[in-house]
Fold this protein.
Amino acid sequence: MEPVGFRRGLDYLLEQGLEVEVVTTDRSPSIRKIMREEYPEIHHEFDIWHVVKGLMKKLLSASNKKDNRDLQPWIKSICNHLWYACSTCGGDPDDLIRKWKALLHHICGVHRWEEDGQEIKCVHADLTSEEQRRKRWLRRDSYAFKALTAIALDKGLMKDLRQMALFKHTGKLEVFHASMLKYTEKRLHFHYSTMKARTQLAVMDHNENVQREQAYTNTGQARFNVVYPKQTKEWVAKKIYVPTTQTFRQNLVVQVVRRRLDPNIKIKDPQSYVSTPPIPENIAQKPKPAKEEAIQKHTSRYSS
Ligand SMILES: [Zn+2]
């Protein structure tokens, strides 16, 4: 279903004459293949959040091995570093990869090093000798460092980084999918026309609320919630946004009533007529037997 929907959606935009320069998705193999083979002229980017999530999973599983324990306190910083490298590379994949690889020096307590005859240094301010002493740097010959190197320089990740320099996000789409659930509940089956109308409602709801701002208290303080995600096991502050609104519903009702009151519009007007396929009386695939026959069967089950 996903590839079919993806192709249809993208083709529709292209047919409408929209110039699509970049498409951002997760790293789904089927979508990668479609982008590479069918839309080679469109640049394909990966969503940073999905990539960081995958990286964190790998780091967590590596750090659970006894020999790699020293990696544990670094996991969050490593993920933040990937985020940082993507957000500051200015769209240049080479710069992104250079910044990402700097991690392998910094984590050993080395903040100046040479690369291709050039001196390179970390972007952070110089550490005090106290800070330098207290950090739990990795040793270059440790198992933890070797495991980290294998993950950080993994060929697949290196290739993916080349498609992440634009620092694109699909977060808004995830938010839309969440609000879709409100209108198209998964446990219920909807016919095509209903599904389409409900999706349109979800789109209108999303569009009305997509630019919501952070909520403030009466005294002008930005509001936050402190939550504890299962994955990272660290308390983090999350912005609280102003409540959603649904004024589009009111507008919709007004327009429907206006349309119905308009004497020039016939009810059977194809514009206002929603076709629904004939609904069968029940879900049975066999014709209904005569009642006597069914009763006979019922009683014979008990009499024998
Ligand atoms: Zn450093």
Remarks:
- The chain has a mean pLDDT of 89.
- Strands lie at 22-25, 43-46, 112-115, 118-121, 224-227, 236-239.
- The radius of gyration is 29 Å.
